[in-house]
Amino acid sequence: MKYLGPFIVIAASIGSVRADDLVAYRERTGRGEHLLQTIRGRIESDSLVGIRIGGKTLPATEIVDVQYEVPGQIKLDLPRAAQAEAAPGRAEEAVREFRALLAAPIVAAQPALKRSFEYRIARLIGIGDDADSAVAALEAFILAYPDCWQRVPATHLLARRYLDRTPSDFVAARKAYSGLAAAGPSDVKADCDFAVIDLLLEEKNITEARRRLSTVAAANPRRAAYAILLEGESAEPAELTTRLQALIEKCNDEAKPALYNLLGDIRHSDPTLRPDAVFAYLYVDQVYNFDPYELMKARGRLAQVFAERGQDARAKQYREKALGR
Amino acid sequence: MNRVRLLLLMFAGFSTGAVLAGEPDGLFVERLRLAGFADVALEYLDRLGGAGRSELADRRSLERAKCFAALADAEVESRCRDRRMDAAHEAFEQWIASAADEASKVDARAELARLCIRRAQSDLARRPVAKSARQEANARCTEHLNLARSLAKAVRAARVAVQGSSPDGLRQRREADFDIALASFYLAQAVNVGGREGLQRRNQHVESARKEFEQLARADDAIAWQALAWVGKCWLELDNPGEARRVFAQVEHEGTQPAAAGGLRLAKYGQLLLLDRGAGVRSRPADVIRGATEWLDRFRYDVNTSEGRGVRYLLAKNLVARSGVTGQTHGVRLDAAGRESIQRAVDLLGELAAGGAEHSQSAAALRLDVAEFLVPEDVGLPMSFAEGYLIAQVELNRRAKLAPGPAGGARTMHVSRARAALEHGLALANSNDRRRDLFDARVLLCYCHLLDGNPSAAAVLGEYLARNSRESGFGARPAIYALSAYSAMIADGVAADAPANRRRITELAAFMEQRWPDEPETDAARFQLGELAFFDRNYAEAVRQYAKVRPVFEGFTYAKYREGAAAQLAASAGAGALPLLQTAIADLKRVPNWPAGASPEMVVAHAQVRLQLGELLLVSKGENAAAQASEIGRQLTTAMPGSLPDGEPARRQLEADAGRIWAVAATVEAGFKLNSGQSAQARSTLSPLVTHLRSLAGGQSQERRLLDAAMEALATDARAAVRLRHPPVGRDYVELFRGLGGDTSAFVARLAFELRGEDKENPAVAIALDSLAELPDSKPGTRKLIADGLSGIGRHVKAAELLAAIAPPTSEEGEASRTFHAARLALAREYRLGKAFDRAKSVMREILGTPTNKGWGHDNLDVRREALALCEDEGNFAGAVQIAVQVQKALTESLRDYETKAARLIHLRGDNAANNDVPGALRGIALAECDQLESDLRRLLPARDCYFEFWRAEMSLLLRYAQTLPPIQSAEALDRVAARLVKLERGHPDIGGTVNRRALNQLLVGHPALKHAYESSGGKALLNP
Known about the structure:
The structure holds two protein chains of two kinds.
Chain A (H helix, E strand, L loop, with lengths): L4 H14 L2 E8 L5 E8 L1 E4 L3 E4 L2 E4 L3 E5 L10 H9 L4 H12 L2 H4 L2 H16 L4 H14 L6 H14 L5 H14 L2 H17 L3 H9 L6 H11 L5 H14 L5 H14 L7 H10 L5 H17 L3 H12 L2
Antiparallel strand pairs in A: 1-2, 1-6, 3-4, 4-5
Chain B lengths: L2 H15 L7 H10 L3 H11 L11 H15 L3 H21 L3 H24 L5 H33 L3 H25 L3 H22 L5 H16 L3 H14 L6 H17 L7 H14 L7 H18 L12 H18 L6 H12 L13 H17 L8 H18 L7 H17 L3 H14 L7 H17 L5 H18 L4 H16 L3 H10 L7 H18 L4 H13 L9 H21 L2 H21 L5 H27 L3 H18 L7 H20 L6 H10 L4 H13 L6 H11 L6 H13 L3 H9 L9 H20 L3 H12 L12 H14 L2 H38 L5 H44 L3 H21 L6 H13 L1 H9 L9
């Protein structure tokens, strides 16, 4: 969220003048391109499905950030908190500032604003170094606000932090995604299903992964790719790579982030193909980077790949990116 | 399937496996590059190979070039950056040369122009301090910037032609204009060679850049704002702070839109520079510190840009100023705040010093000076690695400031402290310390060992670091320390260890060659190997090693000079040197001439290489080589006055050497032409040289070797003039040679000698000799030589006149007396040849004297020969025979002695060959006698030959006399001669030696009657030559 810092600061100051809400969201515009758009107005509805504003519904999966209308009493204090949130290494200060804002009675009177500040606090703690505190903060937020757009990014972050524990807590991560899938709309459910399958694959639980894949809608373009992976479990990685590449060449761009990640995973699993894995993940990071879940996944993988290549600075950079720091 | 094929197949499949058809590889590679993953992008391009499936298949090399350029931009270490820039440059040029579509060529040119500017910028930032090296760096930068300007202009023209007034086209044209202006700005720094003229040239370029930037600033886009900020920077360079302040303020106040960000960054830096200089405003270090801190906070992502480095340097400098140590040398006790300021400054300067980008040199120097205040003279052992490393650097800096003194002095103490601090600090190192710093500290320790007189420790540590360094390129420095240490051990160590140390040098140098072929240190190793071989007189190996030294080596010019010298020595040593000569000639030709405005040291160094090249060309022989050498000499001679000041000590010697090379080479070239009948061309070749020599005449006396060469050249030209029947030039040249400070008599003698070999029928020869003969003040020896020349063309009377005029010397001893005697004898000869026998006899009487009152030539064989010839020519055979017999009698004793000793030698040699069982001691005595006999025989041989010469003369006279007699008496006389020949054959087994035998054989062949008589008398040996 680092690159949203200026947006938040500007929004905080503009909001104080125009007295309405500002939503930043991702808009896909063809191959390899996604634009960060903003829309201003009064938010009509705000749930796990997404936000309705200005006559259009923005899916929860595409929302980047929302700056709710700020009451006059905290106008002067919000920019300080927003600046600290945007600046690297000032997360603790930002948490303090947002907690101070939460203490203002006017904020308690505005549920959306309160939830927004609490999400910011949970996210800031959630990306911190202490995985247990992060998990606790994010779990608490999701428990408190099960039906809001913030639950989608919060769940992704939570699952990631479960895996950061020692040992990685796959069960809890799957449970978090399953919970979101059960509550969310179809697009959120599909993302969660594939996230669960990814976790099962990491656990080498192929049977369960196959079962889970069978529950995904047949029309989903990602399903074919996972099918190749799961059905050809005994096939040689080179063979799987060829089939996956053929699929990439045929499919539309929507599915490509997932397909490239899978391609990277297959290449990474085989010592001979491993040197090429980095290109597949980087394709997601640099070209097909419109899918937040796949982007986060690719960045996590890149952190691992660069660490294996002995490029520690890059590995660290991608670890941070994967956490959204 | 064998393993290799399997691997090849695997790799083939691997390469193409990464490529997916229809995927946006171009976008992918571009984004990787922009995201700082140019190395991964390169890797990807390598994986693509020649895969036709990728959209990049056709422009892979262009993308590679862009990646190299991006990698160079990201690289902080200067050498790595240079290598990458070179790789990018080469790849762009390849693309421009081979690409089919014009649009991509234009793109490549634009990229290459920017690359050249960055390269020049980088080179300018780390120009060496030494004047000549700095000028060489300036020359390279100028070359880069001129190329950048021409490329950018070509790009601009192409953009105008293709894209017209489209927004893209307009933007790209403005980018090209910006590059042109930027190149002008940096060109100003490169052409500033100091002095008033250098400053003027610099200001002209800055002014030109300012105007170009001003033109670009008349718009409202990112380029315009940047250009406006550059206008301010130009005003700063032009020392107009008022205008600079106005422009920077304009950018600050009006440049509020995002497009102005780049310009604003530069303008804010410019304002800091103004503040730092205190130009027109009262500023304190605290103001600059505050401003710089704000800048670094505001533009935190740009701290590694050129401006960012500048701001950090300003910050460090002002932190130092605030601490109050500026201008102090030592003894300052810092308070806590001062110490903190200095520590922060040292850290900042340390960051800037690493890598070799802008401000790195000044930062490194300032850091060491400032760090001294953190390290008191009585500092104890360090508490951490970082402290130990800093103490060592400071101590070595203190040492460098001291003048060399006796061993064990202050300099040694500083080295010992540095070594102790490093050893202790390295023992305290932990995982938090930077790996590069640890490596550098060990390299410094190696250097300390070298300075501390402990070459064995330096050699061991240096070689270890070199062979185990993980950092690419950085191990070359300890390797060169190790090589120096081994050399020191050879020079000062035990002789028995020398071969082992030589082997270590060779092995380590080979390792460097293989591991760091492109590092300057490896060139230093090559040079060192060359020196070692030179010292060993292994000139062939020396040439090979010097030949490998590349232009990046600081002592490249000197290395090439040594290569030439080694090749010349190899050529003088014997055969097989031609390939070495050719290598050296080709290498020396690659050394460019010195650039305009070069320092005297640089001019001298380059001129010496050119002179050495001239020498090599002369040694390599051939008309073409001589022509090249002549041109080199001519160029150097004409270029020297404009390149070296009058007072430069080396100038006179260089001019003399250049003139000599020119004269020798032109003479050789003219000689080739003369020998092939091209006399006119020979004169044309020598004409510019003669003109040059005329320009030198009348001044100081020229150096002797130049005079010798000039003498040859003028004599050759005179010879050519004679052949062309041109008016004689001899007298004119004598005056010219006198004007050069030469010995005119020697020159006239040389001229006469040259003319003596010319065609006798050519009237110009006589005219030339006559003109020489009329010279009033010729020395006796010279007159004699002219007389010899006249004699050679049959002008005996004239020759005799010249010789007769030679007055007797005042002393009977010495050279003058010898010359007079030779002249008198020559006079007798000329009289004889001119049939003036009475005069000849008169002179001969004077020479010979009487038996009771012997003349100086009484016992002289040459005189006797002449006397014999005189009698013979006069028809006085009896008298001639009498002379021949007299001489033989005088030499009989020597002949007997010779023949006795020769017989004894033959006897001894036969004994030695036959009696191998003779005890060694006895054999040794016989061998010693043989040696003595051989020595005696060599001494007696001339007398023996002379005896038989006169014996033959006697026979010839008898033969001639016999031919004048009636037939019967003639036959009897022939029989007597034949009997003498047979007697000689029987009495002298070697018949007086080979020469005599052949001469007598010829006599028989020419006189059949004599031969018949000889055979009839039983003669045999003389029938076979």
